[in-house]
Write a structure and sequence with these properties.
By secondary structure, the chain is an alpha/beta fold. It contains six helices and five strands, in the order H-H-E-E-H-E-H-E-H-E-H. A five-stranded mixed β-sheet has the order 2-1-3-4-5, sandwiched between helices. Strand 3, helix 4 and strand 4 form a beta-alpha-beta unit. Bound molecules: ligand LCLUPRNS and zinc ion (ZN).
């Protein structure tokens, strides 16, 4: 063993860098899936997370009805004799919501992480908003014309897409495992001593 390895071996676990942290792809895909948990769709919950070139999240969204269209009044069903009686004519897809929810001026050259491969309508919005890469988890509708058309357009526009295959089968946030006592002992710097007032001015 060389000196550095020797030192590392002697180190207490609490002094060593953690090794089981999430990598960037896991972190952003998990964020997309966390957003999906907000969806009221009883059948398919989709989340999307947009990340810029500095690996900062600039938009998150999930599938749901537009503003003002009540989750309790509009239909969540998939089948009806009347097309107005299903969700399909009303629901905003996660990808569209993530782009519209952006907190940056645009999403040019960003990467989108999404639970399900984008449909043709979302592909159009992705292309027009200049997103450069799409990372998806499921391609369960690969056989549908909406997905085939989406891929045709993404290919033509030169947008890369690839499937994320997770290394771990679970990423769990278990609130019951969090050591709140320890968290409470973290030093708290009073806002005033940092020279920042509540309104953000210094
Ligand atoms: N890429 C996608 C695909 C679908 N969605 C939404 C639209 C619906 O709310 C739901 C699909 O419903 P299903 O036919 O599976 O019952 O997922 C989306 O947001 N993004
Ligand atoms: Zn879509």
């Amino acid at each position: 063993m060389n000196g550095a390895t020797d030192d590392l071996a002697k180190m207490d676990l609490s002094e060593r860098k953690r090794t089981d942290y999430l990598d960037w792809n896991e972190y952003f895909m998990a964020t997309a899936f966390l957003a999906a948990r907000r969806s009221k769709d009883p059948n398919t919950q989709v989340g999307a997370c947009i990340v810029n070139e500095e690996r900062k999240i600039v938009g998150v969204g999930y599938n749901g009805f537009p503003l003002g269209c009540s989750d309790d009044e509009f239909p969540w069903g998939k089948a009806s004799d009347d097309p107005l009686g299903t969700k399909y004519l009303y629901v905003c897809h996660a990808e569209m919501n993530a782009i519209l929810n952006k907190n940056s001026s645009d999403v040019k050259n960003c990467t989108m992480y999404v639970a399900l491969f984008p449909c043709n309508e979302c592909a159009k919005i992705i292309i027009q908003s200049k997103i450069k890469e799409v990372i998806y988890m499921s391609d369960k509708h690969a056989h549908k014309s909406t997905t085939i058309a989406a891929k045709k357009m993404l290919d033509a526009a030169g947008i890369k897409y690839w499937q994320f295959v997770p290394r771990k089968s679970k990423i769990v946030i278990d609130f019951s495992e969090i050591d709140w006592d320890n968290l409470n002992q973290l030093p708290v710097t009073p806002v005033k001593s940092r020279g920042i007032h509540q309104n953000g001015t210094s």
